[in-house]
């Protein structure tokens, strides 16, 4: 990546990209957690976290969603960066 991503509010149209990013980042960060990145955890991301949190995405210059920040009030509920974008300033 040659430029920093733009941070913008999450839109419902981002759901598939965000869930894919979350799954890949979670599997890489937690390889020891059985079922990480799918199943009931994926359903919770779709049905609870993306609905209840104040979500923001990092979008690369080419339009690819490379990061997800979920805020719960003044606290960070989750921060996920696509494995290929880690170390680029996306997080």
TrEMBL record:
GO molecular function per UniProt: acyltransferase activity, transferring groups other than amino-acyl groups
InterPro entries cross-referenced by the UniProt entry: Acyl_CoA_acyltransferase, GNAT_dom
Signal peptide range: none
PROSITE patterns assigned to the protein according to its UniProt record, in alphabetical order: GNAT
Domain spans labelled N-acetyltransferase: 5-91
Alphabetical list of SUPFAM superfamilies matching this protein: Acyl-CoA N-acyltransferases (Nat)
Entry protein name: N-acetyltransferase domain-containing protein
Organism field: Streptomyces palmae
């Amino acid at each position: 990546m040659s430029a920093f991503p733009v941070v913008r509010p999450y839109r419902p149209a981002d759901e598939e990209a965000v869930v894919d990013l979350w799954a890949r980042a979670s599997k890489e960060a937690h390889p020891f957690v059985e079922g990480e990145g799918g199943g009931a955890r994926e359903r919770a991301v779709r049905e609870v976290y993306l609905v209840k949190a104040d979500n923001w995405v990092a979008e690369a210059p080419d339009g690819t969603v490379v990061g997800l920040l979920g805020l719960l009030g003044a606290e960070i509920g989750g921060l996920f960066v696509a494995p290929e974008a880690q170390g680029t300033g996306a997080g």
